[in-house]
Design goal:
- The structure holds two protein chains of two kinds.
- Chain A has strands at residues 4-7, 10-14, 19-25, 32-38, 45-51, 56-59, 62-67, 72-77, 86-93, 100-102, 106-111.
- Chain A is an all-beta fold.
- In chain A, strands 2, 4, 5, 9, 10 and 11 form a six-stranded mixed β-sheet that branches. A five-stranded antiparallel β-sheet of chain A has the order 1-3-8-7-6, with no helix packed on it.
- Chain A is globular.
- Chain B has no helices and eleven strands.
- Chain B is globular.
- Chain B starts with a strand and ends with a strand.
- The chains are: A mainly beta, B mainly beta.
- The interface between A and B is medium-sized, with 22 and 30 residues.
Chain lengths: 112, 114
């Protein structure tokens, strides 16, 4: 069964610290992996998209990595800010962006 | 401004009363999709459409209908809503043809069925 598992479920860090969120998937065939940021009550916003051949991609303070062999991805947030408080969702596409399988997300809280 | 719009944003209704949630995008995207989001379950795909008159079921299609008569619109229809359809609904769109195209999400519609 196609699944996307994220860990931890929730995380609390101090402002300015770094953190890493994990995503493991069992989706096959694999097309691409996306990380989204979702503020409470709002629609998800794309952070990064990686295809099979890419193993790292950055978007400002966000850096995503992908190991297609072990079917693992991580999202690293550098120098966290209060505005980073949100849910981060890992999404894997099995058919060029049509059938998307969503993880349940990691809720990040950044405190001052 | 490129965007996906949904209406209404909030809706409270009663069991069995047919309703439609509209979704419109102004980016000429081929692909559109509906999701529901529930606490502890994450986002789940209801239906998607790869172009006009082409729709397909996602993970949780039961109790929902969609249509794609125009490229820009993709309404979600609940013929006989039930309380278990109380949820936060998102519409999304994206171009097709390249794997790295991202999906743009609408602002969400919070539906309560009593």
């Amino acid at each position: 069964k196609n699944q996307v598992e994220q860990s931890p479920q929730s995380l609390i860090i101090l402002e300015g610290k770094n953190c890493t969120l994990q995503c493991n998937y069992t989706v096959s065939p694999f097309s691409n992996l996306r990380w989204y940021k979702q503020d409470t009550g709002r629609g998800p916003v794309s952070l990064t998209i990686m295809t099979f051949s890419e193993n790292t991609k950055s978007n400002g303070r966000y850096t995503a990595t992908l190991d297609a062999d072990t079917k693992q991805s991580s999202l690293h947030i550098t120098a966290s800010q209060l505005s980073d408080s949100a849910s981060y969702i890992c999404v894997v596409s099995s058919q060029a962006g049509t059938a998307l399988i969503f993880g349940k997300g990691t809720t990040l809280s950044v405190s001052s | 401004e490129a965007q996906v719009t949904q209406n209404p944003r909030y809706l409270i209704t009663v069991t069995g009363k047919k309703l439609t949630v509209t979704c419109s995008q102004n980016m000429n995207h081929e692909y559109m999709s509906w999701y529901r989001q529930d606490p502890g379950l994450g986002l789940r795909q209801i239906y998607y459409s790869m172009n006009v008159e082409v729709t397909d079921k996602g993970d949780v299609p039961e109790g929902y209908k969609v249509s794609r008569k125009e490229k820009r619109n993709f309404p979600l229809i609940l013929e006989s809503p039930s309380p278990n359809q109380t949820s936060l609904y998102f519409c999304a769109s994206s171009p097709l043809g390249r794997e790295e195209y991202e999906q743009y999400f609408g602002p969400g519609t919070r539906l309560t069925v009593t």
